[in-house]
Specification:
Blueprint lengths: L4 E7 L1 H13 L6 H11 L6 E2 L9 E7 L1 H14 L3 H15 L9 E2 L3
Antiparallel strand pairs: 1-3, 2-4
Length: 113
Amino acid sequence: MKKQYQIWALLTPEMHKKLKEYAVENQIASTRAKMIMYILYNFHPDQLLEDYTFQSKTGKMVNIKVSDAELEYIKSLAQRYNVTISRLLRNMVYTYFRSIGGNSKKESKTVKE
């Protein structure tokens, strides 16, 4: 039996809402967690953008259940971008929506690799 792990992503309320709306509108995924996994496996930016509007006190939590292989993949991505897993997930979502035309209130800056 494969062991299941849980990882947590803390997102801005804007990104939390946008994840579900975009996934449903484009029939990509049925949950926020599945949409985040879709982004991780299908979106490969050279650099991550940092969401400077994020505040932990107003953040919305997304719990993602992953397998051993998925966890190792996510850890390797976090290491590649030199960030924690939660920050990787938050910045990947933010970068994804910025790249497809989602505007943010503040200008973003890139995270150094």
